[in-house]
Write a structure and sequence with these properties.
Layout (H helix, E strand, L loop, with lengths): L3 E9 L4 H18 L3 E7 L6 E8 L2 H12 L2 H4 L3 H7 E9 L1
Antiparallel strand pairs: 1-3, 1-4, 2-3
């Protein structure tokens, strides 16, 4: 089955890698999975201390947009770990591939 793969890389603020990993692993990732998102992988990049990645899969671009709009617009995300997660991120980049 052909799937649309999103590879998101996060460049974190200096000294925030440990805190980012903790909140992502303990709060954000369980929320993503519970929302029905196909989380393929999450982890630390080997090339830089403050770079992490999140890989998600979707049937198509419409599903990606619908799922992400629903998740990131949800009250659970907005009143949950959102502010902390965003506070640790310096920048991020999305790459999409089939």
């Amino acid at each position: 089955m052909k799937r649309l793969i999103e590879v998101r890389t996060y460049r974190l603020k200096p000294g925030k890698a440990h805190d980012f990993r903790a909140i992502m692993s303990q709060q954000a990732m369980p929320m993503l999975i519970e929302s029905g998102t196909d989380v393929v992988a999450f982890g630390h990049s080997e090339h830089e201390e403050e770079t992490y990645f999140l890989i998600r899969a979707y049937p198509d671009a419409a599903d990606l947009t619908a799922r992400q709009d629903a998740f990131y617009g949800s009250q659970a995300w907005r009143s949950g770990p959102r502010e902390a997660v965003i506070g640790y991120i310096d920048s991020y980049l999305d790459n999409l591939l089939w």
